[in-house]
Amino acid sequence: MADLSTKIIQLLDSQILNESYASNFYLALSYWCDDQGLKGCKSFFLRQSEEERIHMLKIYEYMSEMGVHPTTPAIEQPPMNYTKIKEVFEKVFEQERSVTKAIHEIVRVSTEENDYSTLNFMQWYISEQREEEAVIRDIIDKIKVIGDGGQSLYYIDKEVDKLNLQIQAAEGGEEQA
Ligand code: FEO
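Above: the input record for the complex with MU-OXO-diiron. Below: its predicted structure, written as tokens.
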């Protein structure tokens, strides 16, 4: 017997779709960056794609723990073509904002339904979204300062690669803790 309401099951199923789409979206961006010779951005999006897959799998696990069989959704083809790296990061920011909105909706409904398990489960996603949005906002701010034409791309890619190292070091620290 399921311990979740129909409404929460629908929202969690839809969140599986959001996270799966995000994973594919970042995968597509990773190889767009590869084509442009932006190896730092490629690694950034590849890691992001893997993280989104983990976000998706956590929902499968939670639903399963709660006695629900999650839906494995069909995923829409993500966009393939961009003209500027600034446009890429702006689209990413938009994407993350829409995921944050969807997460807040799950939190709102679980509060309304006194569903404390889902409320507790979603806390991790709230912090994760806040961190992701802050990282992307920071990159967009850097692009505004550096510019995104010609040689600026080299410096943007270096900045993103610096970020890759910082994230890697932070993740290493978490694993050891
Ligand atoms: Fe898991 Fe960035 O959405």
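Notes for the reader.
The chain has one domain: 6-176.
DSSP finds five helices and no strands in the chain.
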